Each structure stands twice: as structure tokens, then as C-alpha cells.
Amino acid sequence: MIPSPDWERLYSAAVLESDRSKLKSRIDAAQAAIEHRLQEMDSDHGGWPAERQGIETARAALDVLRKRVAMPQHLK
What is this structure's pTM? Predict the structure, then answer.
């Protein structure tokens, strides 16, 4: 099975988003795509270790972005 590039594309879009009003929706879309890919990988016991590591790194980065979005503007 060929890995779905959706999570990578959506993750990149979230990380590169400079419009604060769009960031939360970008983060949510990336997180949903990651969860979908993990379900695919679990259902067919597929995926490469490098992809799983990339997913874990992306999830951690999205968590940091999500916390930053939730932070009041004057504290950044």
C-alpha cells in the first residue's frame, strides 16, 4: 500500500499558515488526516517506521501550534 500524502500536505499547510484566523482549521484538518492515516496503518498492519516517526513528530508540532493559537495574542 502506498502511503497517503494527505497528512503530510495538510501538516505542511498548518505549519506554514501565517493567517492566525485560518490556523486552527489548518491544525484540525492536519490532525484529522493524521488520525485517518493511523487508522489505515493499523487496519492493514502497514506503514513504514519512518512514516510513523514522522507522524509522531507532526503530532507533537501540531500540539505546540494548538497551544500557541489558544494563547492570548499579547503573551506571544
Answer: 0.85
